[in-house]
Amino acid sequence: MNIAIIGTGYVGLTSGVCFSEMGIDVWCIDVDSTKVERLKRGQTTIYEPGLQEMLRRNAEAGRLHFTADIAEGIANAEVIFIAVGTPSAKDGGVDLSYVVSAAEQIGNTITHNAVVATKSTVPVGTSKRVAAIIEERIKARGEKIEIDVVSNPEFLKEGAAIKDFMSPDRVVVGVESERAKRVMARLYKPFMFISDRLMFMDIASAELTKYASNAMLATRISFMNEIANLCDRVGANIDMVRKGMGTDERIGSKFLYAGCGYGGSCFPKDVRALAATAHSLGLNMEVIEAVERVNNRQKSIIVTKLHEALGELKDRRIALWGLSFKPETDDMREAPSRVVIDALLAEGVKVVAYDPEAMEACRGIYGGDIAWGEDMYDTATDADAVVLITEWKQFRMPSWRVLRRIMRGNAIIDGRNIYDRAEVEEQGFVYKAIGK
User: Fold this and answer.
1) What residues are paired with 27 via a beta bridge?
2) Domain count of the chain?
3) What HEC string does 239-254 produce?
4) At what angle do helices 203-234 and 238-246 cross, to 10 degrees?
């Protein structure tokens, strides 16, 4: 089977590499020729564990190709995926300009019957818009080509995307024709040998499923952060509350962890987009809007904890452990660390930061405004406080004795609640967590 994927960002590249791993012939297309050349050399343009090795293996096997020429890329494709970026618009909605451009290019160049699948996260109605654009462009050329447009949203977690794609908990496809349904069933058959998790539905439901899923997960996080803040006021422990809640089968234990807020490319954007879609239809989604407000406020909790521990922050030296919005990624999009850094710089703090993967991305944002550590201990040297923002594995069991020796101060701000209070305080530290 031959497929094409327009867009080699996080979703497009991961999808293309994983499809090729199953023996499918994949053409990945991107307008950025520099990025295409880098991919041809076997160099990934994003950090995702295991992705580069898989890319090189399938490229060498002749199953994975990269091109900046859309006509070349889609020439023999039975399925053409649109996996371009859908950034937030100024009104909180979705900027669909890249999706529209991809649809126009397909309509201008396609020469055979095919299925076009929107994998980008798009508002309800976008797939029908894509179909209309392609049909209009084909008609303008005087051609008679049958194109079926389907919705096939992605559910990939950064840091675990390969596992999620190769062993999905569900594959959602919105279709309107039996032909498209047969093609998509054949494409995903290799991923369904253990159990059939392929779910067909109408296109509008498929488009909305992605937003509803991410909004629910974001809601759980914001809810737990509000409970954690209440725990701080009443003297309760959010870890105990979480365990007590999580054993209820109706609730479950996942996404009940309090912290300094969520970030990344999906949750913030999708929550805003869902609310904006509702507004455009005359609806107010009060819960969803509150989720975003709570999360934006929660990203500042680190600075509040620093004030509790140190008082005045001007001229203090603060060490940050972790910059990416979550472990196992270098993604800095809407990361809580950015809110923390901006606030600390505004207060005249000397910020020193370290992250195992996101240093380059963060340097591109802050340059020389902050200092950069060589490792976690170098970053903590002479610091008045160490702040854990991203719970990378290497930060989980620090040597408290070493930290006590090299730090100037003694404050530990645990933004992800991973440390044991008694253990930290036994070493002479002032320990501040969230809801503990």
Assistant:
1) 4, 65
2) 3
3) HHHHHHHHCCCCCCCC
4) 140
Distance from C-alpha of 72 to C-alpha of 74, rounded to nearest angstrom: 6
3-state helix, strand, coil in the chain (%, to 5): 45, 15, 40
Boundary-marking domain end, from 201, 231, 259: 201
DSSP 176: S
Q: Is the dihedral of CA 43, 75, 155, 197 positive or negative?
A: negative
Band (302; pLDDT cuts 50, 70, 90): very high
Q: Return d(Cα 11, Cα 19) in angstroms, integer.
A: 12
Summarised one tens digit per residue, pLDDT across range 52-93 is 999 999 999 999 999 999 999 999 999 999 999 999 998 889
Q: What is the CA radius of gyration of the chain?
A: 24
Q: Which amino acid is at 25?
A: D
Q: Tokens 């405004």 belong to which residue?
A: 369
Q: Which residues contact 270 (CB under 8 A, 6 or more apart)?
A: 121, 210, 211, 214, 215, 218
Identify which of 58, 51, 50, 41 has the alpha carbon closest to the alpha carbon of residue 9.
51
Active site residues: 266
Domain range holding 151? 2-201
Structure-derived torsion over alpha carbons of residues 127, 17, 20, 107, reported in degrees to the nearest 10: 30
- In angstroms, the CA 124 to CA 116 distance is 16
**Residue 130 in contact with residue 118, Cβ under 8 Å?**
yes
Q: What DSSP character marks residue 369?
A: G
Residues in the chain: 436
Based on the fold, state whether residues 7 and 125 are members of the same structural domain. yes
